[in-house]
Amino acid sequence: MRRNAFESRLVSRRRLIGPALAMGLVVLLGGADRPSNLERASTVASEQLQWFARQARSWYRSTPPADRMTWGGLAACGLLGLSVLGERSLRLRKGRVLPTRFVDRFRDRLQDGQLDKGKGTDLCEMNPSPASRIALAAIRRWGRPSPDLERAVSLARQVEADRLRRNVGTLRRIAALAPLVGLLGTLMAAGRALSGLEGAEASAAWGPALGGALAPLTAGVAVAILALVAYDGLMGRVETLENALDRLGAETVDAISVLAATQASRAEKSTSAAAANPHRNASAGPHFGIGGQSRGSQPIRVEIPDSLRNF
Questions:
Q1: For residues 178 and 74, what is the distance between their CA atoms, to the nearest angstrom?
Q2: 231-251 residue pLDDT tens
Q3: What is the DSSP letter of 116?
């Protein structure tokens, strides 16, 4: 019933998407009777794009090839870092790695003893996530010794940790590479500036030339700092999620061990009770068609004919 209610709420929310989009479009346009706002916004955007294209062409023509390579490398480092940061930020959300609804429901059922191997497998497969995959690794080995469960959970946890850490190390590499690219650009710009200085004007032009040559190095150091900050933030989030997954795996192993031991003890008691009283149910029914007792338990009556009594 809960699943049906959830699906009905999901369908009702999907039905509201169309009207919400229509309302947002009306608000964006400023009303159905004012289409000029959209035209004005598109005109401003096209003008800004044309201005940016002109600036980029003029910069490309006036910049030496060495500086183009330097600034292109720094731009590539910045774009790569932003893409990794955005992708990992979406992947490392707590609701995606440890869905609250699934984790609470799974823990409650484990503590109440309402799960077995079949129900636990169905619950984990219906809620795909790193947490469910770690729990499923233990549930699939239901009934085995605890070391087997711990080994399976440890392997699953290592796989999920590698998935969480994927591409995070790229930010550290960017932090190491960007200053080197900036330093290379600075050295080339400084050498070119110094080679062009001659005579008495050299001392006066040294300051502006050095200032312009330090720009790539400054940009590279700034990119490296931002990359390191992003790397530390993502690694902190990864470590927090890994600790939560470890706790969930340990709780799953302990609960499954207790439940499996309880079920095994119940089955052993029922088997021993059945072996101790093998004829308990046999005496309740008829035996050879004579009532509910055996033939040997009833007295045997023998009638002697009158002709033989005086013989």
A1: 6
A2: 999 999 999 999 999 998 888
A3: -
Cβ burial, residue 263 (10 Å; 0-12/13-18/19+) = middle
Query: How many angstroms separate the CA atoms of 187 and 195, rounded?
Result: 12
> HEC profile for the chain?
CHHHHHHHHHHHHHHHHHHHHHHHHHHHHCCCCCCHHHHHHHHHHHHHHHHHHHHHHHHHHHCCHHHHHHHHHHHHHHHHHHHHHHHHHHHCCHHHHCCHHHHHHHHHHHHHCCCCHHHHHHHHHHCCCHHHHHHHHHHCCCCCCHHHHHHHHHHHHHHHHHHHCCCCHHHHHHHHHHHHHHHHHHHHHHHHHHHCCCCCHHHHHHHHHHHHHCHHHHHHHHHHHHHHHHHHHHHHHHHHHHHHHHHHHHHHHHHHHHHHHHHHHHHHHHHHHHHHCCCCCHHHCCCCCCCCCCHHHCCCCCCCCHHHHCC
Query: Can you give the pTM of this predicted structure?
Result: 0.67
Nearest to 138 by CA among 128, 148, 129: 148
pLDDT exceeds 70 at position 227: yes
